[in-house]
Design brief:
about 400 residues, alpha/beta, 16 helices
Length: about 400
């Protein structure tokens, strides 16, 4: 290639010898010479990581005319969305002083109609308009028990007044306290509850839902049971309520503690009859939509709130289930401890909208959080508040 910066090297060697750090350093020095070098490197190098840093470094330069032409000529045919994101990022920052970049950025966003570009625009607009450190406000200082349907009782709480929600919704027609006419009725009720949760959860904080598939009982030997993918359907319910997916943690139980499903296969060893024992439940981790990074939430707390050095490094948590004579499906205390440890701070207000026997609230109190529990079963409400710990709104 004419005018190559490195005529003694072929393209393959250049990709090996150049590093992201070297390209970044080239971009930090704003000069016409470096800009021309970066433009040439963009044409010569194929490695996507290097190319991405080249685009970013071009955006740091000061000749807006050349940068504008570069983006306009390459953004629609560069072949990789990672490169589009870097070009769009340049448009966002350059638009502060140059309306042409603002117009080009809008065209790029509309052309690709991409979720990452939309979120970039949302974050950048918030940062430009609001800035400043967010102050910590705790709106409740005592444990609260809300008796009744959570769709109604959560209306008693202020908006953005809760820092964490952790719950296990009733499993569709799997327990005596969970009885719905149809699966669609169940999902409709869960959608209402999640929308009520969204209103009270602080912007940017986490809602964590423990769910697993449920299998219906067979009405007779000649009928097939139905297995409901509740954990899959909850994704649409959560995103529809205004949350976005962050992680899925697998709660792994000892196999001896779960119902045996492979007896039929053990007897016949016939293909198609295999059914594995279900030793896991899904812990779905979602965050309330907010136009800022988690850093903004964390910045409200000083370093004295940090956890100890022990932590779970994988998304598989091996925890034995817990039995309780008063409730058929209770949280293990250890599961509550880990959720509270990793997703809340001391002094935070934490909510369980389907409290059951109240295990989450009890552990929250032990860990110096302020629990709010919702429960519509009067027997469980009395069980939760047998020592009159909770204020009732």
């Amino acid at each position: 290639m004419q005018g190559s910066l490195f005529p003694e090297l072929d393209d393959c060697q250049k990709n090996i010898q150049l590093t992201v750090a070297e390209i970044k350093n080239l971009g930090l020095v704003r000069s016409e010479k470096n800009l021309q070098k970066l433009l040439e490197l963009y044409d010569e190098i194929d490695d996507i990581d290097l190319k991405r840093e080249i685009v970013s470094s071009i955006g740091r330069q000061k000749n807006d005319k050349i940068i504008f032409d570069f983006i306009k000529n390459h953004v629609y045919n560069c072949g990789f969305m990672d490169l589009v994101y870097q070009m769009y990022r340049t448009c966002l920052y350059k638009a502060r002083a140059n309306a042409e970049f603002e117009k080009l950025g809008a065209e790029i966003k509309n052309h690709f109609n991409n979720e990452v570009l939309n979120k970039m625009y949302e974050y950048f607009s918030y940062k430009k308009s609001r800035g400043g450190k967010k102050k910590r406000k705790i709106k409740y200082s005592k444990p609260i028990l809300l008796r009744g349907n959570n769709v109604e009782t959560l209306n008693k709480l202020e908006e953005n007044s809760v820092q964490l929600i952790f719950t296990s919704p009733p499993y569709y027609n799997a327990k005596i306290y969970s009885n719905y006419h149809s699966y669609q009725d169940y999902l409709a009720d869960m959608k209402k509850s999640l929308k009520a949760c969204h209103r009270v959860l602080e912007d940017g904080r986490f809602i964590i839902v423990n769910v697993s598939p449920v299998i219906s009982k067979r009405p007779g030997r000649e009928f097939e049971s139905i297995r409901y993918p509740i954990h899959f359907d909850f994704h649409n319910l959560l995103t529809g309520a205004g949350f976005y997916f962050v992680d899925e943690i697998q709660w792994i139980k000892p196999e001896s503690s779960v119902k045996n499903r492979n007896g039929g296969y053990q007897q016949t060893h016939m293909p198609l009859s295999y059914k594995p024992n279900c030793i896991n439940e899904s812990i779905l981790v979602y965050r309330k939509n907010a136009p800022f990074l988690l850093d903004k939430n964390i910045a409200m707390y000083d370093k004295t709130f940090a956890n100890d050095e022990n932590f779970d490094s994988s998304n598989c948590w091996y925890i034995a289930p817990t039995a309780n004579k008063n409730h058929p499906a209770v949280f293990p205390k250890e599961l509550c401890r880990r959720i509270l440890k990793y997703y809340s701070f001391r002094g935070d207000v934490v909510l369980d909208p389907f409290a059951g026997s109240g295990t989450f609230g009890a552990v929250a109190l032990e860990m110096e959080r302020i629990p709010i529990l919702c429960e519509q079963n009067e027997f469980y409400c009395d069980l939760i508040n047998k020592e009159n710990v909770y204020v009732q709104l």
